[in-house]
Amino acid sequence: MIVPNLSLDEKKRFLQRFWRREERGPVFYIGSPARNAFQGSTLPSFEELLNLELSRLMARRHILDFDIPALRTDFGTGIFPSAFGCPLRYEEGRYPWSEPIIFDDPSAVYRLRKPSVTDGLLGKVLEFTRFAVQSTEGKFPVKMTDLQGPLDIVYLLWESNNFFLALFDAPQAVHHLLNIVTELLIEFVKAQKAHASEVEFIPCHLPHYIPWGEGICVSEDLLALLSPDLYREFALPYLNALSDEFGGIFIHSCGNFTQNLDVLCEVRGLKGVNFGATETPFEDVVAKLGGKVVLSPHLGLNKEIRFSTVTEYLFHLKKVGQRTPFLYILVDTTNSLLGHDMCWRPEELEEIYAVFASWGDSHGE
Asked: Is residue 47 part of a domain?
């Protein structure tokens, strides 16, 4: 079995060395029943949210992987826009969705004030963080909320067509807002860590375990949409600022961002990238970043590049990444090929374990 019989503390120490590239992978997380998005037109109670999290942790206790059980604090991508005053739309089965407040007048950014870390849904995240810690008597670590990167947040504040026009017609206004958002992000991450109090704070909303001091995780979905020149101008300086502040940065992006792989090489303190292997070709990422940072593929939407089974996906990763030392593989966390409840049959888990157990065997494909 590739997963040794390690205690949680031993796993944490191994993963800390792994993020420092002192240990080789692959390490892996096997997806488990996902917490449903909020149901209905209002936020659920903190008690309900916490019970959902605890049920999720209980449901995956039998899975043998490198998971560190921790409480998630996600309230959707609208948390930062809501702090700026963006209206929120509640729909059945999804997190609150934010509406833009900047349209065809770029000068509107100069009338925005920098929010407090307690404004909008940011305050709810902090309150839930403290509630979860107190209610579980510090039994579990707490994960950072879904942290959209500076450019993604500015995009959410702005009507999308006008946002893209502003990159060309009003770049100073875009940079002004990016600076405000970056400052707020830094202040909020520190505030959430403080609200986690005495328990460990994991600076990543994804399934990965990242020790504090080894960087933070940000979602950068515009990475797939912008040209290298635009991404270099409007994203790179602010990612570097976050990386400098927190000791590195781990970037998640949906979509195919092959065109920006060279720009990612310019991010100071880049710790790794998380991407859908059915959108961004795994071969391209390995060729550009393999051996330099942690590569973390997940199954993705299974549309542009398709796999018929989870095992086929894993064999593809093994074939391409056999000699890639720093892999942190997510096994179908997007429910592309399994039922919504994500319940693994015992034989499916055994197939997954077998792939990783034979990873070092070049003839094991």
From this structure: yes
List the domain range (segments joined by +) for residue 181. Answer: 8-357
pLDDT tens digits for 211-236?
Answer: 999 999 999 999 999 999 999 999 99
User: In the 3-class helix/strand/coil scheme, how is the chain assigned residue by residue?
Assistant: CCCCCCCHHHHHHHHHHHHCCCCCCCEEEECCCCCCCCCCCCCCCHHHHHHHHHHHHHHCCCCCCCCCCCECCCCCCCHHHHHCCCCEECCCCCCCEECCCECCCHHHHHHCCCCCCCCHHHHHHHHHHHHHHHHCCCCCCEECCCCECHHHHHHHHECHHHHHHHHHHCHHHHHHHHHHHHHHHHHHHHHHHHHCCCCCEECCCCCCCCCCCCCEEEECHHHHCCCHHHHHHHCHHHHHHHHHHHCCEEEEECCCCHHHHHHHCCCCCEEEEEEECCCCCHHHHHHHHCCCCEEEEECCCCCCCCCCCHHHHHHHHHHHHCCCCCEEEEECCCCCCCCCCCCCCHHHHHHHHHHHHCCCCCCCC
What CATH number has the domain bearing residue 260? 3.20.20.210
Task: Give pLDDT tens digits for 168-199.
Answer: 999 999 999 999 999 999 999 999 999 999 89
pTM above 0.70, yes or no: yes
Q: State the total domains in the chain.
A: 1
